Amino acid sequence: MRFIGAGARPGQAQIHHDAVFTIPNVLTVVRFLGVPLFIWLVLGPREYGYAALVLAVMASTDWVDGYIARRFNQMSHLGRILDPIADRLALIAVAVTLVVAGVVAWWYLTALLVPDTILLAVSLHYFRGHPDLPVSRVGKIRTGLLLAGTPLLVLSKLAIPASGSFAVVAWIFLGLGLLGHWIAGYNYLRAIIRKGKRLRAGSAGTSDDGGQR
C-alpha cells in the first residue's frame, strides 16, 4: 500500500466537494483538539509517555483522514485548506510547548516559524488570505517526518533503557523534516508568487477591457 496518496483508486478523479461535515474534516478537528491535552501532559504532570501517545494518535489520524477522503470520495474544499493549517498550527504549538519544557532549544521553533511567517506575509500580500494551493509531495513527507520524530523525542525523556536511541532516531526524522520544511516553503513561495502575479495580470486585463468599452 502506498503511504502517500493511499486510498486513491486507479482512474478515479479527485474531486473536491463543498461538504463541511465529513469524516476526514471531523478527524482533522479531533486531531487538533489533542494539542491542549498534549500541552497539559507536558507542562503539568510531565507525563511524557502519555504525551507521546497523544502525538502518535494525532500523527496516525493525519494519515487516516487522508485515506478516508480519497478512498470514499470525501475530499472537500474545506478539508483541502483545513488539514494543512491544522497540521501547521499543531506542530508549532507542540514545538512551543517543548521549548517551554526544555525538551528542545529555541532554534527548532525558529526553524519552523520563519518559512511559515514568510509564506503568511506573501499570501496576505497577494490574496488577503489563503492561497488555496495543493499540498506538495515534499510537504506531505515533511509533515510525516515531523509528526514521527516529535513523539520519539518526547519518549527519549523517559527513564527507559532505549531513551538514547529514541533521541538519535528522533533527531534524524526531525532534521530531515526541517530540511523538507524549508524546501517545501521555498516551493510554496514560488507557487504563491506565480499564482498571485497571474491573478493580478488577469484582473488588470479585465479592467483594461472594461475601460475600453
SSE layout:
Blueprint: H1 23-43, H2 48-71, H3 77-100, H4 106-127, H5 137-155, H6 163-212
Helix pairs in contact: 1-2, 1-3, 2-5, 3-4, 3-5, 4-6, 5-6
Outline the structure in words.
The protein contains six helices and no strands. Helix 3 (77-100) runs parallel beside helix 5 (137-155) and helix 4 (106-127) runs parallel beside helix 6 (163-212). The chain has helices at 23-43, 48-71, 77-100, 106-127, 137-155, 163-212. With 213 residues, the chain is mainly α. It has a single domain (23-200), classed as CDP-alcohol phosphotransferase transmembrane (TM) domain (Four Helix Bundle (Hemerythrin (Met), subunit A)), CATH 1.20.120.1760. The longest helix is centred in the C-terminal third of the chain and has 50 residues, at 163-212.
- Which class in CATH terms? Mainly Alpha
Helical residue percent band:
over 70%
| Fold-level CATH name | Four Helix Bundle (Hemerythrin (Met), subunit A)
The oligomeric status of these chains comes to single chain
Q: What is the structural class?
A: mainly alpha
Mean pLDDT: 88
Profile the largest sheet. none
Number of strands: 0
Count of the separate structural domains: 1
Let me know the CATH homologous superfamily.
Answer: CDP-alcohol phosphotransferase transmembrane (TM) domain
Which term fits the overall shape?
A: globular
Order of helices and strands: HHHHHH
Write the CATH architecture name: Up-down Bundle
Integer-rounded radius of gyration: 20 Å
Number of helices: 6
Unreliable sequence segments = none
Alpha carbon gap, first and last residue: 57 Å
Strand content: under 5%
